[in-house]
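User: Please predict the structure of the protein below. I'd like the answer in structure-token form so I can feed it into my own downstream comparison script.

Assistant: Understood. Taking the following sequence of 313 residues as input:
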Amino acid sequence: MKTIVGITEELTFNQLSRLDSFVILYNKILHSLYVDLFIKKIPVKELCPDYQAKYLISKRHFDSIRKLLEGKVSSILSLNKSYLLDTKDKIKEIEKDLLKQTKTYNSYKEKYKLNNDLSLIETNLKKNLYKKIQYNQQRLDRLKSKLKKLEEIKNTGNVKLCFGSNKLFRQQFQINSNNNLTEFKNHEQWYKEWFYQRNKEFTFIGSKDETAGNNNAQISHIKDNLFNLKLNINHKAEKITEIIEFLEKQPEVEKVINIITQQYGKDIMIALKVHMKKAGSDVDLVRNIDSVEERMQKEFNIKWSFFEPDIEK
């Protein structure tokens, strides 16, 4: 397991670089998976093997990212229900106030039409009422627009998640304006903060059937207030690359199309789709596959393998 050890000792430059690279990759996957899972609504069973093969991550890494996204979306949808009820109540309250204010305002107008005059108090009350009506009408329009957006989220399930926060995203448009109240003097400063906020953290979700509850992140107590932290941030990526390079050097193999690995304790299970070179007959093709598979198992100490011949699409 590729690990980075922290808390009890200083991280080396190489370790920090690897950790930074993983965090950026993790969040790149997070942003991409959000689009595929919640916007395009591609089934998880299709996305999981594709992401494992494309980004060379484990299923545990994929599940951690998926569950984190599902938690974020579920939380926003849950809050959305409260916002919907709260917004509807505010709309009812303002509409009720507007009805009373408009009725009173119209009574002053009618009185002025009949008598062609109003007292000083009535004139001031009429002016104040007009301002209140205008203000409440603007509030009502904003709330109705907000309600429309909330109902769209409820109906579509698209929470329009903005990684890095909507507030920070909008600040870029104030930089060159006369009303720049942000801390940024130019777009480069803003982008540096934007990149950091979008790529500053990652989450590893464990399971009760894993060592110490989590194969990817383990913390152990040394003494007093000292702890040892191990992070698996490069799960089998180098080994997968080595397997692909090994297979594509075999005389019977044209190209490796897809590869997925799964760890079972100390053993590795691997599933592959490989474009084999043309053989003299079906029997020769089967013999070639068996031969390549046997060499691969021996070279990398693989206990289980599923070798499927295929052609690149």
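That's the full token string. The radius of gyration is 31 Å.
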